[in-house]
Amino acid sequence: MAAIDVPAVTPEQIVEGEVVRKQRVGFASLAAAVLAVVAGVLPQSVLSNFPRVYALESLRSAAGESIGRAGLRTQQILFLDDHAAVLLLIAVCQGLSLMAIGVLLLFLFDASVIRGATTPRAARILAIIGGFVGGLCAIVLQIALMISASDFASSSDHSTSAAHDALRGGVVVAVSGIGFIASLSLAASFVLIAIGAMRVGLLTRFLGVLGAIVGALILLGPLSGSPTFIVQAFWLAMVGVLLFGRWPGAGVPPAWTEGEARPWPTQQEIREAKDRARGGGALSPKKPAPAPAASSGGPAANGTPSPATAARKKRKRRG
Fold first, then answer.
1. What is the pTM of this model?
2. DSSP label at 101?
3. Cα angle vertex 98, ends 247, 177, to 5°?
4. Are 119 and 109 in contact, with CB atoms under 8 Å apart?
5. What would the pLDDT profile of 119-178 be if each residue is shown by its tens digit?
6. Which of 20, 141, 151, 157 would staple 162 via disulfide (CB 3.0–4.6 Å)?
7. Crossing angle of helices 160-167/134-154, nearest 10°?
8. What is the pLDDT of residues 205-246, one digit of tens each?
């Protein structure tokens, strides 16, 4: 069979095809920023009174001594059951935020590739897994925990083993595992897509590097225990502002309006452009003035006769 020639897409067609989608993705990016803040702030207030299990109590329970309650995690699971509605709201906000992030990453990937970016094709699959699968896992996991906590609270067995069984149900373990894989995928897609979009000029260098940092914080944040949602929400808000053409100072990057790769200039290139605009280029060195020719018995440069010429004139006058 003869190969079918696919007509090339012109830059004008690229820009025209992205107009509507860019606005929608801009709203999705801003919504993801707001939802990320809600999902990050609410747990700090709700879980501030979450019952803790101390190491001494664990040692006493392992030794068979009484710790003053039925089980180590009994109060924790009862707390989850009492605050089920708020925790479900947090999970929904987190899930919707992840899905909106998936929409944004897919759009940046498509816009970068059509402009010639060399972003790996696997980044698109990673964005789908990290955004949509991860968002769904966040909601399903909380629902599974709610059901387990409700069953535990309504049962008569509140022992330590029963509490552990409530947190280790088949659905909880399976969804937790899938959610971990989704987090890895989201982190990788953040790095790959943000760097690719920066190289073709869709993102400024600041946003490109910050997007890669956000991807790293998705994995390092839970290990450090620090709230990393602030950085993520800031990046999402800034990208939303950029998609709406409201980027402060520079306006819309040329790659969006020209439909072609227009890499964002480096700081050195920006300084050189400013110097050229101000006429501050390097000045050519001034040529030194030519030295006066040395006289070789002839008349001096100022027109005064030499001593030998004056002596000959005197002898003529005497004769």
1. 0.76
2. H
3. 145
4. yes
5. 999 999 999 999 999 999 999 999 998 998 888 888 877 777 777 777 787 888 899 999
6. 157
7. 150
8. 899 999 999 999 998 876 665 678 899 999 999 999 999 887
